[in-house]
Specification:
With about 120 residues, the protein is mainly alpha-helical. It has one domain. Helices cover about 40% and strands about 10% of the residues. The two termini are about 20 Å apart. Belongs to the chloroperoxidase family. This is Heme haloperoxidase family profile domain-containing protein.
């Protein structure tokens, strides 16, 4: 395998890989394919070359509140959802000490549903 794609996680929900930043809730049917409306909402909070903890938190909070308001079966704990996704993104794609991640890496990983295992994207 030369890359990791979000659909590789479909058979076993082992990780909430993007905190539903780009996918509709399971309640609405297809929770694996990119949902452009959801992604546009999330992406609107990320304005620079890096996503810092504040921007990430604002996007996560907006997605959480949208899901809570529109999905009667939504139950995911907010803090767990935000923390797990941010930790995964900064530790795999970004700088865990600075608490940020390059926006381009997240765009490729979530927006294009792929994470290439190359030196230019993955950390050492």
């Amino acid at each position: 395998m030369t890359d990791i794609r979000l659909h590789h996680n479909e058979s076993v929900p082992a990780i909430e890989q993007d905190a539903s930043f780009s996918r509709a809730d399971y309640f609405w049917g297809d929770d694996y394919s990119l949902n452009h409306t959801v992604w546009k909402q999330t992406r609107s909070f990320w304005r620079g070359n890096t996503i810092d903890v504040q921007e990430f938190g604002n996007a996560a909070r907006a997605r959480y509140l949208t899901s809570k308001a529109t999905n009667p079966t939504f139950y995911f704990p907010e803090v767990e959802n935000i923390g797990a996704a941010m930790s995964f993104m900064t530790n795999v794609l970004g700088d865990p000490e600075a608490g940020n991640v390059p926006t381009a890496f997240v765009d490729e990983w979530i927006g294009e549903s792929r994470l290439f295992a190359t030196a230019s994207v993955c950390k050492k």
